[in-house]
Amino acid sequence: GKKVLIVYAHQEPKSLNGSLKRVAVEELSKQGCSVTVSDLYAMQFEPRATRNDIVGCLHNSEEFNYGVEAWEAYKRGGLSSDLIEEQKKVQEADLLIFQFPLYWFSMPAIMKGWMDRVLVQGFAHEFPNCYDSGLLKNKLALFSFTTGGSKEMYAKGGISGDIRYLLWPMQHGIMHFCGVKVLAPHICFAPEYVSEEKRKEMLIAWAQRLKTLWKEEPINCSPEWYFK
Amino acid sequence: GKKVLIVYAHQEPKSLNGSLKRVAVEELSKQGCSVTVSDLYAMQFEPRATRNDIVGCLHNSEEFNYGVEAWEAYKRGGLSSDLIEEQKKVQEADLLIFQFPLYWFSMPAIMKGWMDRVLVQGFAHEFPNCYDSGLLKNKLALFSFTTGGSKEMYAKGGISGDIRYLLWPMQHGIMHFCGVKVLAPHICFAPEYVSEEKRKEMLIAWAQRLKTLWKEEPINCSPEWYFK
User: Which family does this protein fall into (chains A, B) (predicted)?
Assistant: First the structure.
């Protein structure tokens, strides 16, 4: 069975994001996958990249450089235990699903903090091992999110621009950089402004997609896909 | 004199980001501006959007919706005091400068949390008051940041794509959405990989730019600027 890590960022279990997460756990488990969830708000996950992430002495205590310190700490097994735990989950996973409501054209800060702190140099990338040769190659990622704005607002020529524009930093800048192949995003537009029935259809569509997920080809994660 | 708020996210005062922040405070003060700094790490600024941001009872305690609760709390003066404090600083400012190291094609989580929590509906925007009629119109913003990657990597056709691609969510999705006009970004490429002398030149160039900043025209914040 495949291993899946769902990194989930919503405060409310009864939200559509909560339901989308549950649907994924159910459907993937039914397929025989082993599914782990990092429920970031429930874990009170720390988003701030600070000296607390490094156990013991610093490599350079004169001038704190987070990237260098996290890299050095990773190599000697000196990262804080919450980070080691998350890295273990990532290491074991074949597929990472990020489930969140879009905040300001991006992920909520608590999830950005997961990226900032978990994907350290040495673990997820290490020059020249980035992009296609990133250290997390052979894994897949999928961004599944809800929006406030409508599909029309996020169309090419719409007031908020093509939704793909805002996927570039997340899909290319983070996942592709680490060597992870990216599946097409799963987007529920403006669930707060549609009927309860429409929201149920959104859950069914997600469950439906998950049934054949392992047959999907990753996107071609290059500027053409985003900005053609 | 003009009022400037510098939102600053670096752990180390001796860093180049720390120096860029100091240079801005000095140069703008010399011009007679009144300058306020929100030093996010020093403040241990909370990046997580949670129920703690709402003082007193919830609008809907059955199902927590952060956006709705923050909006309702704003209207009745019931946001947590750290948010009220930041909103006051924003309200008074003519110019917002965001000073940070680029983390994963975006701002560090602690600064994303500032955006998520401070720029609430009712304060920064309120449909149909968004984009050109956003509630923070008549203000300017400038993103000033350092990168890990070189200028060549962030060129059009470079491995990380045009640096402008990653500015879209921050400049258009956040600032323009709130009605703020955006000045050209100030980017110091790969300061960790250049000489001490080159880093000094970067500080001088920033001070130099600030001397005539108030004469600058905002960019035309439309897809053409980013993706031509």
Answer: Belongs to the NAD(P)H dehydrogenase (quinone) family.
What CA–CA distance (Å, rounded) separates B71 from A65?
A: 37
| Rama region for A6: left / alpha / beta (φ>0; ψ in -120 to 50; rest) | beta
* Residue in A with minimal Cα distance to B45: A48
Q: How is residue B39 annotated by DSSP?
A: E
Of A50, A106, A117, nearest to B112 by CB-CB distance is: A106
**Residue A198 and residue A193: Cα distance in Å, rounded?**
10
Read off the pLDDT of residues B123-135 as tens digits, 9 standing for 90 and up: 999 989 999 999 9
Report the residue from B104, B159, B162 with minimal CB separation from A174: B104
- Among partner residues A14, A63, A226, which is closest to B63 by beta-carbon distance? A14
Convert B73-104 to b/e letters by CB count within 10 Å (16 or more is b): bbeeebbbebbeebbebbeebebbbbbbbbbb
* Token code pair at residue A11: 């405060």
Q: For B219, which DSSP code?
A: P
CATH fold of the domain at A3-227:
Rossmann fold (3.40.50)
Contacts of B59 in chain A (CB under 8 A): none
Give the contacts of B174 (CB within 8 A, at least 6 positions apart).
A104, A105, B115, B119
Q: Is A219 helix (H, G, I), strand (E, B) or coil?
A: coil
What is the predicted pLDDT for the residue at B198? Answer: 98
**pLDDT given at position B226:** 98
Which uninterrupted H or E stretch holds A86? Answer: helix A81-92
Summarised one tens digit per residue, pLDDT across range A151-184 is 999 999 999 999 999 999 999 999 999 999 999 9
pLDDT score for A122: 98
User: Phi/psi class of residue A61: alpha, beta or left (left: φ > 0; alpha: ψ in -120 to 50)?
Assistant: alpha
pLDDT tens across B49-68, in order? 999 999 999 999 999 999 99
CA distance A1 to chain B (A): 31
Of A131, A169, A192, the CB nearest to B169: A169
Minimal CA separation from A162 to chain B, in Å? 9
Residue B64 backbone class (left: φ over 0; alpha: ψ -120 to 50; beta: rest): beta
Contact B191, B16 (CB under 8 A): yes
> Which residues in chain A touch residue B71, judged by CB atoms under 8 angstroms apart?
none
Q: How confident is the model at residue B88 (pLDDT cuts 50, 70, 90)?
A: very high
Alpha helices in chain B (DSSP H): 16-30, 66-75, 81-92, 109-118, 163-167, 196-211, 223-227
The pTM is what? Answer: 0.98
* Contact (CB<8Å) B173/A104: yes
Complex ipTM tops 0.95: yes
- pLDDT, one tens digit per residue, over A45-62 is 999 999 999 999 999 999
